[in-house]
Design brief:
alpha/beta, Rossmann fold, six-stranded mixed β-sheet, four-stranded antiparallel β-sheet, 5 helices, 28% strand
């Protein structure tokens, strides 16, 4: 379970990186991007961004919830998998092989994290999860895409679990928050 106390201890150790440092890997770099950490490609374009305080700031609904398995759509820099890897089986779907390669090279994710190269919209789900977190998008989703994700993933939620689409929180007339 994630709670604020153990999260505060963990957040400081993610990547051992503060927002003022840079990491260079094979022409890619991790450095500040607004209030986040950004992964930049060799041309200087931001490929993905993540926040060390992601859970407390953007997904507090994951706090104080017991769960053993989670499917994460969108790897980012691996903050959520990193935080939950010690107590949950983690499957993370990422469409971009470059992001997968960089995250593997960083080495902060353990054996309990299974990274799958696929598209969250077309991924073939083969097992059930306590939590499915769809965080692969930067802009709120259309009602049609949201409905597609609901239809696709709700049958794979264990009893007592939930589908969580934080990008839609507070939008689309508050339609999507947590779906149980």
């Amino acid at each position: 379970m994630i709670n604020k106390q153990n999260l505060e201890n963990t957040i400081g150790s993610i990547f051992n990186l503060s927002l003022s440092e840079n990491i260079e890997l094979n022409g890619y770099s991790i450095k500040p991007y607004l209030n986040y950490l950004g992964l930049y490609n060799p041309e200087g374009k931001v490929m993905t961004a993540d926040a060390p305080d992601y859970i407390t700031e953007y997904a507090p609904e994951l706090l104080d919830v017991e769960f053993d398995s989670i499917l994460i759509g969108g790897l980012g820099l691996g903050v959520v998998p990193y935080v939950v890897q010690d107590f949950a089986q983690v499957d993370a779907i990422e469409i971009d092989q470059n992001i997968i390669d960089i995250i593997k090279e960083l080495g902060h994710l353990g054996e309990n994290v299974n990274i799958i190269k696929d598209d969250i919209l077309t991924f073939s789900v083969e097992k059930t999860y306590d939590i499915i977190l769809i965080d692969a998008f930067y802009e709120p989703l259309s009602e049609e895409t949201t409905a597609l994700l609901e239809e696709k993933y709700m049958p794979f939620i264990n009893e007592g679990g939930f589908l969580y689409i934080p990008i839609n929180k507070g939008v689309i007339d508050n339609k999507v928050k947590i779906l149980k």
